[in-house]
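TL;DR need structure tokens for one chain.
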Amino acid sequence: MRSRGTHLFPMMDRVIFGRPAAATLAAEAERLGAKRVFLIVSHTLNTTTPEIGKIAEALGERYAGVFDGVAQHTTREGAMRTTRAAREAGADLIVAIGGGSVVDIAKITTLCLEHNLTEEDGLDGFEVQVDDKGRRKIANFKGPTVRMIAIPSSLSGGEYNAGCLVTDTRRKLKQTFYHARMMPLAIILDPQLLRYAPESLLLGSGTRAMDHAIEALCSPQGNPLVDASVLRGIELMREWLPRAQRNRDDIEAATQCQVASWLCSFGLQARVPMGASHAIGHVLGGTCDVPHFLCTPVMMPGILAYNEPFTADAQKALAAALGQPDRSAAEAFRAFCKSLGLPTSLREVNVGADQFDLIARNTMTEFFIFSNPRPVQEPAGVLEILKLAA
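>> reply
TL;DR here they are.
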């Protein structure tokens, strides 16, 4: 049991769950006094479902426009496009409606609006940097005045923190940008939206939420509130995600999965440092084009095996939360992912051993590798993990 530490609270007003997005967002816009609400949304939700139209109608005169051209991996170029559109719309509130890439690009848009950035190079110097000893340097800049609300359509939970990932395509590297005021003011959980997520995204994003929980649980810098919350989140996701897979119209299952994602993300909210799964996952996405929602089932079993000597107690609690107390946490998590039909090795997502050296070198530019519970100070440690996940 943890006997000392600190719990940090995010700059977020509220999480509203189990309610329709349209009416809830309209009420939030009125509460915040927003006059020009600009929507950054999933293209699929906008073009194949009635949901975005219902939200625009509910906003009425507050509706300022919509942008739906967000790519899977958030890029600097994409951020410039959303920023131009939001600026032209005179946005005083940004709303992200979609998956993790939509949420990330909305966050970076608020930064770009504040600093009147118009070119990709303008983001240089705003990113979180790391020195060769793994020490983070968070840039000191004025936070956004135009804030955002997140309405997620997947389960990854990235909306529950004030940072975002943006790919610098010049180097094929994902970079982290952070400011406390990039945190959504509100998060609206409408279970109806989960019906539209492709099955692989729904399931993979559910395991991504569990990733946040596992890395927080295993972190030396966690705390009792985070531990209790994320373990309950893992239990709920293990119980309800298979039900949501079996019946995509099961609103109770969708609601419980969203609550599970919220609880799993308590470490993100409290700024508990993540570890190797996040560091390597960022590189697999930015360098190898692996969908972010598949990085966890592929990498986490190997990372748990690598970290087990340093996190034995946490892993016992994890295995119990996964309903398999007699197995190792690595085996229990792999079995859960396999039961969902997800890939559990790098070869299944077309990443071969010939790419391992590049992945290992790039991972050492990610600050989360230096907060892994089992220390990783050199690319050789990353290579050892990659071989476990091969």
